[in-house]
Amino acid sequence: MRATRPNSVLTALAATVIIFLSAPSGLASAKEMRVTISNFTFEPQTTTIVRGETVRFVNSDDMVHTVVAADGSFRSEALDTGDSFTATFTKPGSFTYFCGLHPFMKGTIVVK
């Protein structure tokens, strides 16, 4: 009886398929960070993310709030208790924001 050797092309193809199937999909959503609105503050006040990530602002306060970028790049509708708003950051930089109803509430997103 003669031993057979696997076809090297088929072996390479099988390895490629396994790597492809185990690799993360390019269509997978980017990481999402969370900023909580509570007691008239944004927590954390400064959030550092990587370009392409999304920040979800969640209103846990018993008052209506908004999230407004100082540079005008994003603006939420009025967020009641339990409502949320997301913004995805595609450019590096520092983005300050505030509550349009309570301008003393401020925060910063740092995008690397």
Can you describe this structure?
The chain is mainly beta and 112 residues long. It has one domain (32-111): Immunoglobulin-like (Sandwich), CATH 2.60.40. Helix content is 13%, strand content 35%. The chain has one helix and eight strands, in the order αββββββββ. It has one helix spanning 8-22; strands spanning 32-38, 41-43, 46-49, 54-59, 68-69, 84-88, 93-98, 106-111. It has a four-stranded mixed β-sheet with strand order 2-1-4-6, with no helix packed on it. Strand 7 and strand 8 form a beta hairpin.
Structural descriptors:
single chain; 112 residues; mainly beta; Immunoglobulin-like; 4-stranded mixed β-sheet; 1 helix; 8 strands; 35% strand; globular; disordered N terminus
What would you report as the Rg, rounded to the nearest angstrom? 23 Å
Residue windows where pLDDT falls under 50 for at least 5 positions: 1-5, 8-29
Strand order of the largest sheet: 2-1-4-6
The separation of the N and C termini measures 62 Å
What's the helix count?
1
What's the total count of β strands? 8
Mean pLDDT: 83
- What's the CATH H-level homologous superfamily? Cupredoxins -  blue copper proteins
Helix content: 10-25%
CATH class category: Mainly Beta
- Please outline the major beta sheet: 4 strands, mixed
Proportion of β residues?
Answer: 25-35%
CATH topology, what is it called? Immunoglobulin-like
Oligomeric composition of the shown chains: single chain
Order of helices and strands: HEEEEEEEE
